[in-house]
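Posting this for the archive.
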Amino acid sequence: MVMTEPLISKECVRVEFNDPNVQYEGRVAKEDSQNGAQYDWPLVAISIRFRSEEAGPVVAVMDGAFNRFSALVRSEDTVGPAFSEKRIFTAEAPGTVRKVVLGQVPGRGVYRVKLAKLTEPCHTGMPMLPRYFGMGWMSGMQGVVSFRAWELPSGSTLLPPPDRPQRRIEVIGGSDTCGCGAESSDTRKRTWWGAFSRNEIHNAELCYSYQLAARLNAEVHVEAWSGKGLVKNAFNLCNIFGKETLPQLLDRTLATSKSPLWDFDWIPHAVLIDCGGNDYNNAKPTSEEDFSDAYTDMLHMLRHNYPEAFLISMCGGSTPSDHRRNKAAGRVSRAVKRFADDKAVFIEVPIGITSDDDPQGHMSHHSEVGHTKISDFLEPQIRELMGWT
């Protein structure tokens, strides 16, 4: 269990969030020195590398805002045996900066620490539902992370971060793209009540976005949020997932705030786009014409910001008994063809790649098993397109 405590003074080496040797992966706002590094997209990660002279705790000073995180502490070059420790924890409710003990280094040596956000923006993406049922204490539980500093054992020396991977991919999509419900137990996988406690069952490190980045040895940015569609969000008439669609969020640093805007100075080699399926989660899906116009507009926006990137549109991954994930495939394929760009392609993940017998996540989302099968299908095709051996 990761321990937290109110802010108190201890003998340690403090490293501020804006130290040049602190490495960030994903969209992060660092303009506000009072609130530190702020972020809410999934799989944003913060890493450091340091030399320790003694055993002691590695501490993150942060307001985790009820998000779920993984923390990996591992040795790079130690005097003693190799060391690696990974913990998964849920931060306390937003509003208080706390010291979170991520791990204990065993002694002298060089260590790397990586803190990664496993949850999507705004908890479940449905902050209005609890209010309808008189459960206001649940609404908006999950907020924007505010990371302030690291605290390292006494006498530690911060080292330059490791080189970033040479390959870069960006992944855009909805619930499957951010690992929604991927850790769900069988007893809760089909209940709406699980939606209000998804921090316990949400793990973006199990989803295909993370798996593909790890397999391809690529740095990854993920802009994904459950329920977000191309023209209409899922269950649009109920406004469960808000009014802003996924394309309207792609210029944001923080998913839940219109400012600051993202500067697009991080340029991916490939952009994987899984958008449009949620438009079908409505009694009246988006019309073909509106869908095509919105999809090509999104591709034009991405091409403007990434002139040389491969734009890889995808759709699918349905089980034989439930074809919903493949419903938008024809429309996406036609929109990509209409876009007429040599570096824009469509890949359909066929029905049956995942099985009816596979373990299911919450509300029929993919578990790690399903995400792994989708990664198995996509990896060789991406490697061939990109020339990545």
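The first strand starts at residue 4 and ends at 5. Residues 118 and 205 are 7 Å apart (CA to CA).
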